[in-house]
Design a protein that fits this description.
The protein has 300 residues and is an alpha+beta fold. It folds into 3 domains: 2-60; 79-209, Jelly Rolls (Sandwich); 216-292, Phage tail protein beta-alpha-beta fold, CATH 3.55.50.30. It contains 5 helices and 18 strands. Strands 1, 2, 3, 4, 5, 6, 7, 8, 9, 10, 11, 12 and 13 form a 13-stranded mixed β-sheet that branches. Strands 15-18-17 form a 3-stranded mixed β-sheet, with helices on one face. A hairpin with a 7-residue loop joins β8 and β9 (167-172). The longest helix is centred in the N-terminal third of the chain and has 33 residues, at 28-60.
Length: 300
């Protein structure tokens, strides 16, 4: 594309030059002076365009990156930030071809170009990574308390800063998880999940439908009402208040919901199997849902 721009500019310059030479004038001396001035101006304009196009091409190429890395070998690359609004999700393709899906309320910091020795990104929230294999540059996901290091694999990381929790689920390949402030580390195999329990990493399993959020599907796997409400707060930017008179939870739920159907649709389905209802109110510009027993309030 840049070569085409250069050729177009050169043609424009040649055409203009030809027109200038052919333009009649009664005074040879005057024609010579005007021609020289025009040539000088046109040459300056064309040169500016050519230099600009060349610099743009150079910036986009790996040559610019090599020159910059040579002059500033210890400089960290500039980071870009993508933040996903509440209730939405998005997909990114990074410099190396790695695909990243970000869930609701998630933030990812990443460079335009990765360095020559590693591929580092920083995550707050939940991200699903399909990493391009590169044995010379490990791919590292850094969270508030842990790092997840891989060469090429498929995995999911959930680490919202405000929840102070961490979990990493491996679908393919292998990942090495390291704590930032301790010597704690763990090597995961496919179909294993690492979670934090009492400050330590533990291994458990997971259901692959949990990652259907990439398609706008919320999967609930054997959760109590309280656990489900925490999940719903993430997707719908709301707050729940649970009445102290609500009976002790014993039932657990498993099912799928379309996120776009809304929180009240999910609550209406769940309350069919349990003795609770909800009251929706706005307080201090925030959305609140109070979960109460059916004995206190008639169904809405």
């Amino acid at each position: 594309e840049n070569e085409k721009d250069f050729e177009n500019l050169r043609r424009l310059y040649d055409i203009t030059l030809w027109q200038d030479v052919s333009f009649p004038d009664t005074s040879e001396q005057k024609r010579t002076v005007i021609r020289k001035r025009r040539l000088s101006i046109l040459a300056s304009i064309a040169a500016a365009f050519i230099i600009g196009a060349g610099l743009f091409y150079l910036y986009q190429s790996d040559t610019f990156k090599h020159i910059f890395d040579t002059i500033y070998p210890n400089e960290e690359p500039a980071l870009y930030t993508t933040t996903v609004p509440t209730g939405e999700y998005t997909r990114l393709v990074l410099d190396d071809g790695t695909s990243v899906w970000l869930n609701s309320k998630s933030t990812l910091d990443y460079p335009l170009h990765f360095s020559d020795d590693r591929r580092l990104v920083r995550l707050s929230g939940e991200g699903y990574f399909d990493v391009t294999h590169d044995p010379d540059r490990p791919f590292i996901v850094e969270t508030a308390e842990y790092t997840v290091q891989v060469l090429g694999t498929e995995f999911n990381v959930r680490a919202y800063d405000y929840q102070h929790t961490f979990e990493a689920s491996l679908l393919q390949g292998s990942v090495l998880i390291k704590a930032l402030n301790t010597a704690d580390e763990l090597l995961l195999e496919p179909d294993q999940r690492a979670i934090t329990e009492n400050g330590n990493l533990q291994v458990t399993t997971f259901h692959k439908d949990e990652f259907l959020w990439r398609e706008g599907i919320l999967f609930i796997d054997n959760k109590t009402i309280s656990e489900i409400l925490v999940i719903l707060e993430q997707y719908y930017d709301i707050h729940f208040i649970i009445d102290e008179n609500l009976p002790e939870e014993s039932k657990k739920y498993t099912g799928k919901f379309r996120i776009q159907d809304g929180v009240e649709h999910i609550l209406n389905v769940l309350r069919l199997q349990n003795e609770f209802n909800y009251i929706h109110t706005n307080w201090q510009e925030n959305n609140y849902y109070k979960i109460i027993t059916t004995k206190q309030q008639k169904p809405m």
